[in-house]
Amino acid sequence: MSSNLRLRYEIDSFVVPGDRLGSFFKTTLPGPGTSARKGHLYASTAGRLSLQQQEQQSLITVTPPQEQDFASRRVILVGQIVLAKVDRVSWTQAHVSIFATETGGTLQYPTEAIVRREDIGSTVPVTHTTNTNSNNNNNKTSWQVIEAVRPGDWIVARVLSLGDTQRYMLTLAEPQLGVWYALSAKSGTVMQPKSWNTMVCPETGIEESRKCAKPRS
Amino acid sequence: MTKSAFKLSNCYFPLELPSSQEGGTKERHSGDGKTTRASHSLRRIHIDSQVLQSGSALVEMGHTKVICQVTSPVYASSSLLPSSVQLSMDEGTLYCQVNYLSHASYPTARILNASATPLDQSHQQFSSSRINTWRLSRESDLSARLLSALQAAVPLQQYPKCCIRVQVTVLQDDGSVLPACIAAASIALTRACVELYDLVTSCQVALQNGILLADPDLDEEESADALVTLAFLPNWKEVSLLEQSGKLSPAQTNQAIDLCRDGCRTMHRFLRDHLLQKLSESKTKD
What we know:
Chain A is mainly beta and 217 residues long. Chain A has two helices and 16 strands. Chain A folds into two domains: 1-68, CATH 2.40.50.100; 70-217, CATH 2.40.50.140.
């Protein structure tokens, strides 16, 4: 396998975008930081050339220096988990601003998204004993938006689609998605989740309705 | 992240006066005031990167100085994008904008003196609007050419519904602005960790009295019979921008394009050396 691998630059040397690294075969594949064209591998970012061995294949990658990550990691893609803050709420949808994604980290500045009423989830809690098929057919009610999220809450959501030119579409319809951080309306202290649909303020004891995210334990 | 101070390398060096020689060959200066250059050699190049924020570059070719800032990825509904930019769902968009910094960065006297007809007496009165129209048309022209030169090198399908914003500011225009803009954009895109298929390099060649001059400065550009600009991807060996203005015979066109390609290869060497130097500097900091 090593006899097939003839790179024009030494492993662990620095390369620059566009440098032709060599030819690629079935056993050596382009990894992150490289691109392939007409049977040849080219570097696509400035960094250090390295070789990762997998079972039968070896990946050729170029990794940028330490503080930097690829700009393409910061793109919001369908299916990613994002952290967003609720700006305002209407009868049919909640308008949020996305502040961070799971792969990209914190965004440089927030971008808009909406969570529609039908994407907040069902009002029946999903537990191990519940027969989900029959319950979903009979249950026609969905959350009221104001009872699920309030302006100022931070929510964990999943990107449903890229939406239109102005906003992304998010969904809260899974147990681990929902309100992550909320302040009590009366006292302003951080509330604790009590169950899947209530949060309680530790100072005053007042309960408020939210669609809570399942705590990770 | 500490900001590094950057210095313009030949900011305080005086420019030569436009010469009033009639005919004869004029000596070409290479921008640092000391040496003269041959017809096929480029001016002195100075490159600096990460000058403003992450993803920026400063390129000086002789006295032409440009700064480029790349912001990526820019999402929808952002204040950085004008409303005229349409984002596509499948792939990203590249938005390029070239701006002249102030009235001091372009030759005001020449624009005013270049009146349309000898009968045009009113150019003194409307000088500011004439300069503005010149500047706006020149900026949009440079932006469009920069966009077409860079578009071949950026894999836009990695950025759905996002935009990569390339903002170039021309600090001083002394000829060959577009090659300097393209070089600065390439360095800035690389330093912003935007993946590129290849570095885009560019060179400009002027034809004056039958002689081809590489990297013309402002005097040579204005008195040239023809001007050829080439933007080239050196490793992929593909041309992304080829422009010609003026009158050239086919043989001269071929020679001019060959000279441009040699100039692009030289530029590529400079860009590559700068990037490798920055990589080894960042390694020794760890």
